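README: folding subset

This subset contains proteins for which both the sequence and a predicted structure token string are available. Records are stored as plain text. Below is the entry for DUF4276 family protein (224 residues), shown exactly as it appears on disk.
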Amino acid sequence: MKRVLIYVEGQTEETFVRDVLAPHLMKTCQIELKPTLARTKHTKSGQTFKGGIVSYAQVKGDIQRLLGDSNAALVTTMIDYYGLPDNFPGKDTLPAGTPYVRVRHLENAFANDIGDPRFLPFLVLHEFETLVLVKPENLGKVLPQYENQLQALVKNIRGIPPEEVNDGPQTHPSARILQHFRGYQRRLHGPLVIKDIGLETIREQCTHFNEWLKKLEGLCEVTQ
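--- output ---
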């Protein structure tokens, strides 16, 4: 059995990994996927606050600590592309082009900065709620009191692939959801909606996510 450590931005991603990704990889590849939550603040008393990306220095330190685990076959990440710190590798040389070109540029710069062959960076285009927008109709199931707003949300994103719903302050995925579903809570509702959508549907509509998951699944092929 291979052990993979995944560095996640918040508790929502942690729940998604635990309830959706980890069971899939264990069943299909006998890969143990273990999430580790980002550490964002330390106090003098030694208390640690977890969740969210505040600085790249903290991210790099956390990743290096995870790579210190010699039992881990791979260390990967699940971090939002939207809202990355300004000093994130590659951000100052971000090229023009599609979101896919830009996110791969950042991931390559991230990998080069860490400099370990066991590190596989993954940035979610553009944030976790992208996966919710694969099937926005499912929001009406968990937030039925806002169901009359559903068609407005569907119209808002019609014709846009989920991973291309952009990263503007008012137009990134969670902002669009909150415009119509004001009671939406990422940690509570996000994993419920995504679990109901199903991993295969998400893979069909989210190219970048699917490419990453294929690389994780590739670990089982190496050992067979």
